[in-house]
Design brief:
Layout: E1 6-9, H1 12-16, H2 20-31, E2 38-43, H3 44-49, H4 51-64, E3 67-73, H5 81-85, E4 90-93, H6 95-99, H7 105-120, E5 124-127, H8 133-141, H9 158-174
Parallel strand pairs: 1-2, 2-3, 3-4, 4-5
Length: 178
Amino acid sequence: MPAVPVAVNVSAIQFRQQGFCDSVRDVLRETGLRPDLLELELTESLLLANADVMTSMTAKLRAMGVTLAIDDFGTGYSSLGYLKQFRVNRLKIARPFIKDLPADVDSAGITIAIIEMARALNLAVLAEGVENEAQLAFLRRQQCYTIQGFYFSKPAPADKVGELLRTGFGHLISAGAA
């Protein structure tokens, strides 16, 4: 099977635990997962909680080769300064903005703005919560090709994911679409 990226939501409690970076390094070693295939999803509020500590932690994780994403971008404090300070790799557009696409003009405007901002900052962008063809078509028109949501698959147990990869669903995952 192809190597696939693994995204992991990290809670504020986990991130602040003593030895968190060591734990990540140990898991990578134990599983054999390449660091560039691990993406840690952090919330805006987590990053802003203690900026000095977070800057140090994110720098250590990036030095390991792990990628970082801001999950549910636009629903927290949305301080643009932390995009530079924490040097994340990806913005994940929050589901509430995707949910009413393409009909809701405000959601469409916010989504377009996030995509354009990510592009201008040389960040990857991912749309969360894509559930229908109209949403997918809108995002494709905006050149947002990394997508996740029930449109592609409902959550599946590990043995089903392997089956999806083996039977042709892998092209969506390898393109970052699932």
